[in-house]
Amino acid sequence: MALVAGVDSSTQSVKVVIRDATTGALIRQGRASHPDGTEVDPTFWWSALQEAILAAGGLEDVSAISIAGQQHGMVVLDAAGEVIRPALLWNDTRSAQQATDLNKEFGGERKIADSVGSVLVASFTASKVRWLADNEPENAARVAAIALPHDWLSWKLTGSTDINDLFTDRGDASGTGYFDPETSSYRLDIVASAVGDEREIVLPRVLDPREFGGTTPAGIPIAAGTGDNAAAALGVQAQPGDVIVSLGTSGTAFSVSKTATHDFSGFVTGFADATGNFLPLVCTLNAARILDAAAKLLGVDHDRLGDLALSANPGAGGLTLLPYFEGERTPNRPDATGVLTGLTLANSTHENIARAYIEGMLCGLVDAVDALEVLGVDINRILLIGGAAKNPAIGPIAAALFGRTVLIPAAGEYVADGAARQAAWALSQSAEPPVWQLGQALTYEAEATPEVIVQYRTLRDRTEGW
Questions:
Q1: 156 with 204: CB under 8 angstroms?
Q2: Beta bridge partners of 88
Q3: Cα pseudo-dihedral 423, 424, 426, 429, rounded to 10
Q4: CA angle, corner 178, sides to 88 and 138, nearest 5?
Q5: Would you name the residues annotated as active-site residues?
């Protein structure tokens, strides 16, 4: 029985799963926490990965490994392979102005979207590199290589200190803002503009989906890896026509597509996936932590929060939450804050507040799915994943807001599972990824509540420019 390891190095923690390469059966797993913040020393990720591997029983019997990680972050290395400064993560919005500047320099939103599939926002690596050049010129002058979090961890796993050994895949590279997913090539002109000069910068070589990029010192082959959303699509074995809505630290809605998308409005990012297809995606900054805030505000746990929300009527008695607690990426409002409106003496109840927080979080993702549909993305099924999907209110309220049947797959570490499936695919060299046996999904259907969406969008539009 060949075993494979999959890693999910996310914003908040790292998870490692060891699975049977043929059946996908879970053998063992481990996890470790990451420090909070939008700026993190990558060595913390490496230490946490070692801790999680140890908790998962080690890699001695593993035949292949793959790492999936949070997208967009900027890890800058000097010529000796040393980290120059703490990594700026995807949810660090300080580079909003630099994103605007780069969009203008490359012909505006329509042209940049045609070039790299997406309009640049603060999350993208290119924007963060320009911020470094603008604000820390001494550090910028030392940059010899730029990596994403998963690239850097895969490279560390090889034991190499040569920056020329860095590797990545189309899925994660397509979130840099300087990679064209249609041609699978870097836009070196955008890199040069972001860095501020024409010197050669080492970028990770882009591997095919079934290719290994190196081995651990013990000889275990390391697959290409990918970004967390592309890995999640692999983990739930998504097919074209499936829309996955992920409720993690960020909220994302994405779909496996046979064709590339280019959205100059900036709502939909035109990413690649981990299989050779495309992954049009909409990302919001505010998802699971909105429920954390609601639970803290009301002094309840997450199960009780869900029970309270289900006790309230749709629309929460007129309460509406705009959940921009940490600014927002879609729509692009990096300096926005959250807004709760419609409070009266009659509706100021725990039940209505719980419902308003959940509806506000989900309504932003209803907008996301609608944006995918406008671009012609086929939508056959909606699959809800992520930590917040475990809340008992999420399934039924989501079905009502989306106006569609909603499936919640059996519990699992979908990103780490997808990385493990990628490792198994590279190990087998089959034409397609292995088909694993997944648990039974929960199915939710509910009467549509379009009036709640109207209530939310009215507030969203009224607060534009605040």
A1: no
A2: 39, 74
A3: 180
A4: 45
A5: 228
